[in-house]
Amino acid sequence: MLDGSKTETLLEVNNIEVIYNHVILVLKGVSLKVAKGGITALLGGNGAGKSTTLKAVSNLLHSERGEVTKGSIIYRGDHIAGLDPADMVKRGVIQVMEGRHCFEHLTVEENLMTGAYTRSDGRGAVAADLEKVYAYFPRLRERRTSQAGYTSGGEQQMVAIGRAMMAKPETILLDEPSMGLAPQLVEEIFGIVKSLNEQEGVSFLLAEQNTNVALRFAHYGYILESGRVVMDGPAAELRENPDVKEFYLGMSDEGRKSFRDVRSYRRRKRWLS
Amino acid sequence: MPEQFLFAMEVILNGLMAGVLYALVALGFVLIFKASGIFNYAQGVMALFAALTLVGIMDGQIPFSHIINAIFGTELHHFGWHVPALLAIILTAGVMVVFAWLVQRYIFRHLVNQEPIILFMATIGLAYFLEGVGDLMWGSDIKKLDVGLPQGINDWIDVTTFEAFGYGFFIDNLDISATIVAVFLVAALIMFSQYTKQGRALRAVADDHQAALSVGISLNFIWVLVWSIAGFVALVAGIMWGAKSGVQFSLSLIALKALPVLMLGGFTSIPGAIVGGLIIGVGEKLFEFLIGPMVGGATENWFAYVLALLFLVFRPQGLFGEKIIERV
Ligand SMILES: Nc1ncnc2c1ncn2[C@@H]1O[C@H](COP(=O)(O)OP(=O)(O)O)[C@@H](O)[C@H]1O
Ligand SMILES: [Mg+2]
């Protein structure tokens, strides 16, 4: 288990503000840290700003007319504003986007190989990593010649993660891997994320709406609401926090609440900012 | 064998050869459209410009000599050397790469995320601009282009078919070499896109820009690559057409013939562009041969467009338009 005080910080997001289209202020001062070798969860409802935060780090924001207007993002001691996504991938940071974004008309294997686009360490090393990805995702080996567009949602999520692994990353920014998947598949995917973390030493910044699963697998968590971090702490503590239990894990005395109920009720609560 | 049938055979063969050119131009469209969603109206002018540049380089013409002479009162026209065809083709291909880079750097980089209609308008502007630049650089007179491809009726085919059927087929050597070159070009393109890293990246970009960015593929680089390839395809089409009917403005109009080809083949399908080109080539020659005499001829002018119209009504995605995969 990771001990916050001793581990090295890989990524540091300091009080960033993000604006889309020059007018829409989406992040209003988000700060977080990602520890080397850890799984850090970024939690919060739909529209909270999780994806925006990840894209600010991977620098995919530019292509969506988004801009970091305040604060700084530091990876391994370097300011990374102004780099392009390819530079980030070369530095070991790759994003797995929400909704998987497989290349539909490419085969599963071709999809995986695109992950190695920026690498220059030779065919042999890439081939070895392809084998490794197949070892973690045996299902992908079976489907390697299928067009990705015709594989199931779970398989596409595996393709997306496997493709990121092909870049030999140090940190994966993983956006909503559980989205639209059956609970059993969600467990399977998170199980693999955990072993990639433990065996391959890949650090994760994981955006999730599924707080329950995310907090079981993560080491540390941040909760985001309307573009602000409203709470953070070790995952085990967040899991036991009564507010988190009530609002995000849907466990109150009256039983499980629908998400909408929880949210409108929540607005009256105080730990807003 | 009945006379009529042999005539028709000859017509079909000639149609296939004409179709190869349509297919080449359509291919240029498909490449750019697939990778960037831009419908490149300038594809035909690119063929003209490439052919003009090739002739200019081969003849050792001094580019922009008209302007230079007008400003400085000089009488410059030629460097006084001749460049061998192969070297000139390589140099022209280089010019098309520079052109691709300029187009990406100064036009489309500033239009990222714009509506398709805006991108289309930009290519219309580009077409007229390039036409003007071509005129200024190389002059607007009709030029002969001879890169050393065999010309004239193929005697061997004539004699052989005469001996076999009692009727000799007239097939132009130029058409035969155009077909061979086109086949090699298409094969090379397919090999490139299927089996190389950049080819795979190109297909990835065509599928999903965002995802391509996320794995570190540079869209700018891929788009320059695609425009370069389209420029090279335009060069090959320009050579073929120019060798046949001289390098002149009408060359850029072959682009208009590519439109019905695209409607038949689908805007995103490489096999579609090829098969569509061949169908239009054969179709218009055969139609002219069979039906033309009954309606007073000149059907080649409109046949392709009417066929395309029928396709638009009954099968808008074309013969090979990519199926949109809908499965989540
Ligand atoms: N490209 C964009 N342009 C404008 N607004 C956007 C864009 N992407 C996201 N937003 C807005 O930013 C807010 C946060 O979105 P997002 O980061 O996707 O949240 P989450 O991933 O937590 O659901 C939302 O209100 C959303 O509407
Ligand atoms: Mg999101």
TrEMBL record, chain A:
Keywords: Amino-acid transport, ATP-binding, Nucleotide-binding, Transport
GO molecular function: ATP binding; ATP hydrolysis activity; branched-chain amino acid transmembrane transporter activity
Annotated SMART domains: AAA
BP GO terms, sorted: L-amino acid transport
Gene3D superfamilies given in the database record: P-loop containing nucleotide triphosphate hydrolases (3.40.50.300)
Domain ABC transporter intervals: 11-251
Matches recorded under InterPro entries: AAA+_ATPase, ABC_transporter-like_ATP-bd, BCAA_Transport_ATP-bd_LivF, P-loop_NTPase
Superkingdom, natural source: Bacteria
Family under the similarity heading: Belongs to the ABC transporter superfamily.
Protein name from the UniProt record: Amino acid/amide ABC transporter ATP-binding protein 2 (HAAT family)
Species: Litoreibacter meonggei
Automatic annotation (TrEMBL), chain B:
Gene Ontology MF annotations: transmembrane transporter activity
UniProt keyword rRNA-binding, yes or no: no
Recorded superkingdom: Bacteria
Similarity section: Belongs to the binding-protein-dependent transport system permease family. LivHM subfamily.
One GO term (biological process): amino acid transport
Name this polypeptide is given: Amino acid/amide ABC transporter membrane protein 1 (HAAT family)
Its membrane topology: Multi-pass membrane protein
Keywords: Amino-acid transport, Cell membrane, Membrane, Transmembrane, Transmembrane helix, Transport
Any one annotated GO CC term: plasma membrane
Predominant localisation class: membrane
Transmembrane segments: 12-33, 45-64, 84-104, 116-138, 176-196, 217-241, 261-282, 289-314
Pfam families assigned: BPD_transp_2 (PF02653)
Compartment list: Cell membrane
